[in-house]
Specification:
By secondary structure, the chain is mainly beta. Helix content is 0%, strand content 42%. The chain has a four-stranded antiparallel β-sheet, with no helix packed on it.
Length: 114
């Protein structure tokens, strides 16, 4: 995405509350027939809690130095920017750009522990 608006103005995505220091446990990228079909399934773990999320219509995926040793992830709701259907931005919380991508949406595939 070309928008350089500060992510600090975008609210955290509500699905990721309580996962402030979660580690990447698994990342699966599935290439669709078109780029509109690209999907990432991302499993995060924090202590004994493990949760899996599916990001749809993934774009601009970048994995940099240090991946998968990501200190923590930032997942922001960017739907307010009106970016051609993009609603989520994921980045390394330490801003090392070990992982960065945009997606149309996200859903949780696991239920959070009670």
């Amino acid at each position: 995405m070309t928008s350089r608006a500060s992510v600090t103005s975008d609210p955290p995505h509500p699905l990721f509350r309580g996962l402030a220091r979660a580690q990447v446990r698994d990342l699966h990228f599935e290439r669709g027939l078109t780029s509109r079909d690209d999907v990432i399934e991302l499993t995060l773990g924090q202590g004994r809690e493990v949760r899996t999320f599916r990001f749809t219509r993934v774009t601009d995926l970048r994995l940099g130095g240090g991946f998968p040793e990501v200190g923590w992830l930032r997942v922001h709701d960017v739907s307010g920017r009106r970016l051609d259907g993009i609603g989520v931005r994921v980045s390394d919380g330490e801003q090392s750009e070990a992982i960065v991508f945009w997606a149309a949406g996200v859903e949780e595939l696991t239920r959070p522990a009670a």
